[in-house]
Design goal:
Layout (H helix, E strand, L loop, with lengths): L10 H11 L16 E7 L5 E3 L2 E2 L3 H8 L2 E4 L2 E5 L4 E6 L4 E9 L6 E6 L4 E3 L6 E5 L6 E8 L2 E5 L1 H9 L2 E3 L2 E6 L2 E7 L5
Parallel strand pairs: 1-6, 7-12
Antiparallel strand pairs: 1-2, 2-3, 4-5, 5-6, 7-8, 8-9, 10-11, 11-12, 13-14, 14-15
Length: about 190
């Protein structure tokens, strides 16, 4: 049996491990499957704010670092390193798409989204856009897949800009990107 002390995961130990795993690109979190170490009092709010022990994490670079070791399994979210796996709470989606850059128009259009942590992603078959409508209010919540089962909630201003680029296709109003059409609302439900 090892004589090394047993330590509980903390934000500091996770940040240290994430820094150590940094290289070119994102760490291979999909290949890391350490034992579950318990839950950490960390939460990502719907607006993309990260909280630790109930306090917002004010250092953007630390949030970006944590975002690189984020993993989703089913409906649960974890921060993982090669040796630790801790559960965290995510109110809606772990990222927020804060802007997008369109290229081209119509069916040849490409939409490149940027998240609150600096990820850039081309919406398309590999990174689809989906819109969920609230059953009571009909209010839309639009998302774009960023990476490995992790989505970004598209912020309101970007969604309004997205709708301006929309088109009708096969009975739906939606947007084109990278050769794929993403449905927003049935055409006959538009005012």
């Amino acid at each position: 049996m090892s004589k090394e002390p047993i330590t509980s995961p903390s934000a500091e130990s996770l940040a240290e491990a994430a820094r150590a795993a940094q290289g070119k690109g994102l760490p291979p979190v999909d290949k890391w499957n350490p034992e579950f170490c318990g839950d950490l009092d960390m939460r990502i709010a719907r607006d993309g704010t990260w909280f630790y022990l109930g306090t917002p994490i004010g250092r953007h670079e630390l949030v970006k670092l944590f975002s690189t070791i984020l993993k989703r399994e089913g409906e649960d979210y974890f921060l993982v390193t090669p040796v630790e796996k801790v559960g965290i709470t995510v109110d809606d989606a772990p990222f927020v798409a804060v802007d997008f850059e369109p290229e081209g128009a119509g069916e040849a259009q490409s939409l490149i989204f940027e998240t609150n942590v600096g990820d850039k992603v081309l919406a398309g078959p590999a990174n689809p856009i989906r819109v969920v409508r609230d059953a009571e209010t009909g209010e839309p919540s639009p998302y774009v897949l960023v990476r490995a089962n992790l989505e970004a909630l598209i912020d309101r201003k970007s969604f309004y800009r997205l709708v301006e680029r929309g088109a009708h296709h096969e009975g739906w109003f939606g947007v084109w990107s990278d050769g794929a059409f993403f449905k927003v609302i049935p055409s006959d439900e538009l005012p």
